[in-house]
Amino acid sequence: MKIVVADDDRQILGALRIILSARGYDVAIAADGKQALDRVIDDHPDLVVLDLGMPGLDGLAVIEAIRGWSTVPILVISGRTDSAEKVEALDRGADDYVTKPFATDELLARIRALVRRMPAGDEEPRVEFADVVVDLAGRRVIRNGHPVRLTPTEWQILALLVRNPDRLVTREAILTEVWGPHHTSDSGYLRLYLAQLRKKLEPEPSRPRFLITEAGMGYRFVPAGQQE
User: Fold this and answer.
1) Residue among 105, 112, 81 nearest 95 (CA)
2) What's the domain range around 145?
3) Mean pLDDT, range 136-145, rounded to an integer
4) Whose CB among 48, 109, 194, 218 lies 3.0–4.6 Å from 170's, allowing a Cys bridge?
């Protein structure tokens, strides 16, 4: 079983590598948030053990980025004891939270519990269709080898759709996710943004095959392309 451990404290990082390796885990380490994200993308771990207070990309940002494509269990270890910090980490997508200093036995028990409860999947952080690559980890889109500029709102809509391939995503669900619960009737905005996404990503925007409208209900991302 592979575990990515990310912490900017070299002593803790070294100690965790020794403790976990001695229990038979395959451990990959990262000293900052960017390294942590790179490790998760490259190594496809079964579990991530993550500190919050790292330089550059902090732990909360790493959690959010991982949750863009993966359900891999995330265990936060942090010296932050404020309950608001714990709640925010859990709301961003962490599965458990251990406060430093921690007992080794407790940490190992939490790891075992997470692996039993949430086995890691084989998700890839890239979604491909036609000549388009959606890099959910890097929050970017490539078409024919060239970057496609999306607005933040266009990205949110596209990411929501591609994370739910072949599933109907209702208008209300998209509006709530992107604009908030008080904008569920603003479907005109949504049509405009879908039209813009199709112009940027569909081979024939007027005859979309991948970003499909389900009349009266919502939208569906069809990775294989809808046949005429």
Assistant:
1) 112
2) 126-221
3) 86
4) 218
